Amino acid sequence: MAYLGNPTSTIAVLKKYNLHFRKQYGQNFLIDSNILEKIVSSAQVTKEDTVLEIGPGIGTMTQYLAESAGKVIAVEIDKTLIPVLEDTLSAYDNVEIINGDILKTDLAALAEEKNGGKPFQVVANLPYYITTPIIMGLLQSRIPPERMTIMIQKEVAERMQAEPGSKDYGSLSLAVQYYACPEIMMQVSPACFIPKPNVGSAVMRLTTYQEKPVQAEDEAHLFAVIRAAFGQRRKTLVNSLVNEKNLHVTKEQVLQTFEQLGISPLVRGEALTLNMFAELAKHL
């Protein structure tokens, strides 16, 4: 059986099915077997795992996953790729292909149906234009994945892993770090894809926390405070919070809270840790 993780095999499949890359689905196919092997080893997939793959494309990474995992559930939005996947993955009896939109899929129901209610491992080369909604949807699911190993845009990976005080640190860093521990495993050049994307890529591993690193009595309120803090980065945190109509707080309230918590009234959002934001949200 021919592996697809090289330019020759990928081009042969594209020609055989007269396939054209569909920009609306952000299709960029991996053509480097070295990178594919590293992704699967970074994911630490074993025969005990059921892997959820999002956007399998023509089945390039699915082949590698099928050899390491107990079962692979591959969700592909592009219905023209379903017959291609049925062909390229015909040698594997542990792969199930689902034609669907991951953003409209009830992940908890899928885990109940396909994995006895146990969490999936997620491995995916995500479409870059909807990376954040996919990741947050997975993390906030009723049965979140234990681990996600995902190819995403390099800048987005850096923002997810960013620490307080850095220019990349923001509401995305805090949202991801509330649910999971992010690690950039490797960087990937545009030359490893057909067609070449216009940006650099990175493989990121997110390990979901069994217990959140901070206690939030009201998660929605915590995230509203965080979003307000970074809505206008150049403003002080006091002004950002007061200007956010949905928070309904006065300047006096905010300054009083800052004094209680020992926060400078001149501080900006990027100086606060997740723990400090949790305390701030609780007191407001």
Can you tag this structure with a few keywords?
284 residues; Rossmann fold; 2 domains; two-stranded antiparallel ribbon; elongated; alpha/beta
CATH topology of the largest domain: Rossmann fold
Number of separate strands: 9
The SS-based structural class is alpha/beta
Which CATH class of the largest domain is shown?
A: Alpha Beta
Considering DSSP H and I runs of 4 or more, what fraction of the residues is helical? Answer: 25-40%
Number of helices: 12
Please summarize the sheet with the most strands.
Answer: 7 strands, mixed
Order of helices and strands: HEHEHEHEHEHEHHEEEHHHH
How is this structure best described in words?
The chain has 284 residues and is an alpha/beta fold. 40% of the residues lie in helices and 17% in strands. It contains twelve helices and nine strands. It has helices at 7-16, 33-43, 60-68, 82-88, 107-115, 131-139, 154-161, 171-179, 219-231, 237-243, 251-261, 274-283; strands at 29-30, 50-54, 71-76, 95-99, 121-125, 147-153, 180-188, 193-194, 201-208. The strands form two sheets. The protein has a seven-stranded mixed sheet.
